Give the backbone structure.
Amino acid sequence: MPGRILVVEDEQDVRDLLVLTLRNAGYQTLTADTGPNAVRKAASEVPDLILLDIMLPDMSGTEVCRRIRNEPATANTPIIIVSAKTEEVDKILGLELGADDYVTKPFSPRELVLRINKLLRRGKGATDKSDRLVIGELVVDRSRHQVTFRDREIILTPTEFNLLGLLMERRGRVQTRDRLLTDVWDYEASIDTRTVDTHVRRLREKLGDACDYVETVRGVGYRLNGPPD
């Protein structure tokens, strides 16, 4: 699955390891060692995916993530945070700011490439699924990777897009957090189920007036309901 990845990392040895790992996996690479450089390169080069360290000079990785998400050209570019910060609060903050995944250092190069491959496949979408899902005035167009509500486009990350599409496909059926981890993230128990809660919360915020379509089933998971047909 060839593609171009921006590696944002200020430690040269870690940056070199990431670049070597990615090139061995067939990816092209771009690099940045500061936050401002990362923001500029993301905007000018528009990579297929970004690997982002949190602890950067001049500008924090979380601020870099926020700025990248606020730019139309990179609003839905997949972002994986690669950080030595292992506290749950750091992971949740990164995901709330728009990252699609969070990998802690030291990392397994093989696992990192696996996560990158899965995330890029997730962004492309599955060809055997319906191209267009409609519930009320909420529309998911997979062929165009576009979501609209009342004719207003909603910009989602690849993970948010696939999460919404899956919930719409299974309208009215409760999806457990573990099931969502398997079907959306394809990681099974590799990441905490609170990751699901963070993405659902962010998805609801972006859906605006359609946020009530996504219902929390306490102690179980989530389901999507819509207005009566």
